[in-house]
Design brief:
single chain, alpha/beta, Aspartate Aminotransferase, domain 1, Aspartate Aminotransferase, domain 2, 14 helices, 16 strands, 37% helix, globular, binds 4'-deoxy-4'-aminopyridoxal-5'-phosphate, EC 5.4.3.8
Length: 427
């Protein structure tokens, strides 16, 4: 497969765009380097690069492209927005229609607010939790990603239930000490942290199903324990559903799990591919937000007509019967085929799957927390990634990023993918 034009463009990008990419996860640094493939066009489950190569897309833009590229229903909605005005800076009916649609699908949302990214949605939830409780500390879980604002770029301290330290240059130490990071799926560590800091904790921020070190489901009873202790100590539960909302069924993950978080952050899928974030939750908590309450959140582009109409159209597609069942069915075929190929070629992997999303880990350990995901073989994954790319299969360039199916993938795509996996493992 020839990548000459991608390589030339990447060299040019390096001259003008820091690192040649507009988000670090797009670089191939974690897979042994090289020029990231430059795409020009997408349709359905495929996209094409500048050199004319076609790929089956399992990146789905890190989640949002759940209906594939250029879905006609969403394209029509975006075209309508382009023709009738993409931004007014005033209320529109679209945002009311979309808010109602989200609330119908996710009954825990008494009130919602739209903004422009997952980062903004989570950032505001943290502020609202602090404003509502009058407390400052936040508990989060190792390996869960919540965007790039200061409070969530904090790593675990050096021992159990210690305060955090900055995970990025530029994050003040004072900010990091307001954040406590504990391992996912570890009741004991969470309990310890609450015993030590619980009365100062404003919010517990969690991905109810982790989508940021592959796909990791909570142990039975883990989230229930988190919710029970949050209640006992008067801290709010904040579910980061930026990846999970409308990924596994028509609604939120917490609905599937039977939980009632105080606040929910969303993004990705709900924008139909356009920039979006949204947060919502319990009425009393949401009424802390300006103009009703003292917690400020605003946005020039917030609730813009283009994102609203694309989002509504996307949910309309996802509402059709059988959509999630088909992604689950194809996911199961991929899981079965990949595991069979790993056996055939003696390649040690484990695989976590929930419906149309899964992750392959180069390890013999079932991954249930971040440490286990971190300890998988990145060098092997890097080789796998490049072999798959050479066969026209595009994955995220990270050893524990999820593969996402879309409504447009077919059984023929699965077969083509499994042939590529067989080849990659044989190498
Ligand atoms: N939360 C989660 C769970 C995410 O996966 C992401 C993005 N990967 C974010 C928040 C941040 O969203 P955005 O990139 O839209 O700011």
């Amino acid at each position: 497969m020839n990548h000459t034009k991608s390589e030339q463009l990447h060299a040019e990008a390096l001259e003008h765009i820091v690192g040649g990419v507009n988000s670090p996860s797009r670089s191939y640094k974690a897979v042994g380097g090289g020029a990231p493939v430059v795409m020009v066009r997408g349709k359905g489950a495929y996209f094409w690069d500048v050199d004319g190569n076609r790929y089956i897309d399992y990146l789905a833009a890190y989640g949002p492209i759940v209906t594939g590229h250029g879905h006609p229903h969403i394209a029509k909605a975006i075209a309508h927005a382009a023709e009738t005005g993409v931004l007014f800076g005033t209320p529109t009916e679209h945002e009311i229609k979309f808010a109602k649609k989200l609330k119908e699908a996710i009954p825990t949302l008494d009130k919602v607010r739209f903004n422009n990214s997952g980062t903004e949605a989570v950032m505001t939830c943290v502020r609202v939790a602090r404003a509502f409780t009058g407390r400052t500390k936040i508990i989060k879980f190792a390996g869960c990603y919540h965007g790039h604002f200061d409070q969530v770029l904090v790593a675990a301290g050096s021992g159990p239930a210690t305060l955090g330290s900055p995970d990025s240059a530029g994050v003040p130490h004072a900010v990091a000490t307001e954040v406590i990071t504990v391992p996912f799926n570890n009741k004991e560590q969470f309990t310890l942290a609450m015993e030590k800091w619980g009365n100062d904790v404003a919010g517990i921020l969690i991905e109810p199903i982790v989508g940021n070190f592959g796909i990791v489901e909570p142990h039975k009873g883990f989230l229930e324990h988190v919710h029970a202790l949050a209640k006992e100590y008067g801290a709010l539960t904040i579910h980061d559903e930026v990846i999970t909302a409308f990924r596994f069924h028509y609604g939120a993950a917490h609905t599937m799990l039977g939980l009632t978080p105080d606040l929910v952050a969303m993004g990705k899928v709900i924008g139909g591919g356009l920039p979006i974030g949204a947060y919502g939750g319990r009425k009393e908590v949401m009424e802390t937000v300006a103009p009703l309450g003292p917690a400020y959140q605003a946005g020039t582009m917030a609730g813009n007509p283009a994102s609203m109409q694309a989002g509504i159209a996307c949910l309309e597609v996802l509402q059709q019967p059988g959509i999630y069942e088909e992604m689950d069915r194809l996911g199961a075929l991929l899981e079965e085929g990949i595991l069979a190929a790993s056996k055939k070629h003696n390649v040690t992997i484990t695989l976590n799957r929930l419906k149309g999303a899964f992750a392959i880990y180069f390890t013999d350990v079932k991954v249930e927390n971040y440490e286990q995901a971190e300890n998988t073989d990145g060098e092997k994954f890097g080789r796998f990634f490049k072999l798959m790319l050479s066969q026209g299969i595009n994955l995220a360039p990270s050893k524990y990023e999820a593969w996402f199916l879309t409504t447009e993938h077919t059984e023929a795509d699965v077969e083509e993918t499994l042939k590529a996996v067989d080849y990659a493992f044989s190498q």
